[in-house]
TrEMBL record:
This is HTH cro/C1-type domain-containing protein. The keyword Flavoprotein does not apply. It comes from the Archaea. SUPFAM superfamilies: CBS-domain pair, lambda repressor-like DNA-binding domains. Keywords: CBS domain. It comes from candidate division MSBL1 archaeon SCGC-AAA382A20. The keyword Ribonucleoprotein does not apply. InterPro entries: CBS_dom (IPR000644), CBS_dom_sf (IPR046342), Cro/C1-type_HTH (IPR001387), Diverse_CBS-Domain (IPR051257), Lambda_DNA-bd_dom_sf (IPR010982), Tscrpt-reg_CBS-contain_prd (IPR017158). Residues 74-130 form the CBS domain.
Length: 175
C-alpha cells in the first residue's frame, strides 16, 4: 500500500537530508528539475507519479546499496506443499521442520500458502487446496530489508524472485 502524499514527501526529504544531498543534487541524480524537488518538499504542488517515482527510486537505490536485500535474506531451501496433499501429510512436514507455514506449489507455480493455524482447524483428510490461502507475495531480490519488514506485518511470508522464485523469507529470517 502506498503511503499518503504528506508521508511520502516527509520520507523523501528525510532520506535526502540523511544522504546529505542538496535539492539540486537529488534533482540531477533523479533527472528532474530542482524546482520540482523544491515544490515537492514544500508541498506546493503534486508532481506526476513518474517524477515522484524517479526521485524515490534514486534515493532507494543509493540507500539500498548499504542495506540487506531480499536476495541476502532469503532461504533458498523452499519446502512446499502440494494442493492435493492432505492436512495430515502437511502437518507432519510442518512439525518435523518446525515450520509455521508452507507455500503451496502446483506444477512449477506457487499458488498460495497454508498456515499452521489453518492446518490445526482442518480435518485430517482435508486437502491443502481446500484450506490454503490463495496468495503469497513475490518480491524482487533487490527489495530492501525495510520494505520486507513492512510487508511481513501483514503477510506470513514472501517469496523472492530473480529469474525464477529463488527463496522464501519469514519474519524469523529478519532476526
Amino acid at each position: 500500500m502506498l503511503p499518503d502524499f504528506e508521508t511520502l514527501v516527509k520520507e523523501i526529504k528525510s532520506k535526502r537530508k540523511n544522504l546529505d544531498w542538496s535539492q539540486k543534487e537529488l534533482a540531477n541524480r533523479a533527472g528532474v528539475s530542482q524546482s520540482l524537488v523544491t515544490k515537492l518538499e514544500q508541498e506546493m504542488n503534486v508532481p506526476n507519479y513518474k517524477s515522484v517515482r524517479k526521485i524515490y527510486e534514486t534515493l532507494e537505490k543509493t540507500i539500498s546499496t548499504d542495506t540487506e536485500t531480499a536476495g541476502d535474506l532469503a532461504n533458498s531451501n523452499i519446502v512446499s506443499a502440494k494442493p492435493e496433499e492432505t492436512r495430515a501429510e502437511v502437518a507432519k512436514v510442518m512439525k518435523k521442520n518446525d515450520y509455521s507455514q508452507l507455500p503451496v506449489k502446483k506444477d512449477k507455480k506457487f499458488v498460495g500458502i497454508v498456515l499452521s493455524k489453518d492446518i490445526g482447524l482442518a480435518k485430517n483428510d482435508a486437502l491443502v487446496k481446500e484450506i490454503m490461502r490463495p496468495t503469497i507475495p513475490i518480491i524482487p531480490e533487490d527489495t530492501p530489508r525495510e520494505a520486507i519488514a513492512e510487508l511481513l506485518k501483514s503477510q506470513n511470508a514472501v517469496l523472492v524472485k530473480g529469474e525464477q522464485v529463488e527463496g522464501i523469507i519469514t519474519s524469523a529470517d529478519l532476526l
